[in-house]
């Protein structure tokens, strides 16, 4: 298992850090899929400025894809920005992150 951290940065980037590093452009809303080698997956949503009553710049969440993974999933503060969320997953080696076309 490898640690994978996903969070919003600036006002237009999604950062993926861990066993690999990836960056996606995200203009307000972003959707991606985390996919394990065995096909287990989940969808990650992130949106800048949707905070409402919350004090974070980014909102991040997950959705079941029908192949719900059995990975530890937790939320922490994003690196270098206390109060902004980061999704932290312990994923199998070979897991990838794909951007979902909108």
Explain how this protein is built:
The chain is mainly beta and 102 residues long. It has one domain. It is 0% helix and 60% strand. It is built from no helices and nine strands. It has strands spanning 2-9, 13-18, 22-25, 29-35, 41-48, 58-64, 73-78, 81-91, 96-99. The strands form two sheets. The chain has a five-stranded antiparallel beta sheet, with no helix packed on it. A four-stranded antiparallel beta sheet has the order 6-5-4-9, with no helix packed on it. The protein is globular, with a radius of gyration of 13 Å. The mean pLDDT is 88.
Strand order in the largest sheet: 3-2-1-8-7
Radius of gyration: 13 Å
Stretches where pLDDT falls below 50 for ≥5 residues? none
User: Biggest sheet: strands, sense, closure?
Assistant: 5 strands, antiparallel
Our measurement of the CA-to-CA distance between the termini, rounded to an integer number of angstroms, reads 30 Å
Approximate strand percentage: over 45%
Overall pLDDT level: 88
Keywords:
mainly beta; four-stranded antiparallel sheet; 9 strands; globular
Describe the structure in brief.
The protein has 102 residues and is mainly beta. It has strands at 2-9, 13-18, 22-25, 29-35, 41-48, 58-64, 73-78, 81-91, 96-99.
Secondary structure blueprint with pairings:
Blueprint: E1 2-9, E2 13-18, E3 22-25, E4 29-35, E5 41-48, E6 58-64, E7 73-78, E8 81-91, E9 96-99
């Amino acid at each position: 298992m490898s640690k994978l951290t996903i969070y919003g940065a600036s006002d237009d980037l999604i950062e993926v850090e861990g066993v690999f590093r990836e960056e996606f452009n995200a203009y307000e809303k972003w959707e991606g899929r985390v996919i394990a080698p065995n096909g287990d997956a989940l969808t990650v949503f992130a949106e800048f400025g949707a905070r409402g009553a919350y004090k974070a710049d980014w909102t991040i969440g997950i959705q079941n894809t029908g192949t719900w993974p059995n990975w530890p999933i937790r939320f922490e503060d994003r690196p270098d920005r206390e109060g902004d969320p980061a999704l932290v997953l312990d994923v199998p080696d070979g897991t990838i992150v794909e951007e979902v076309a909108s």
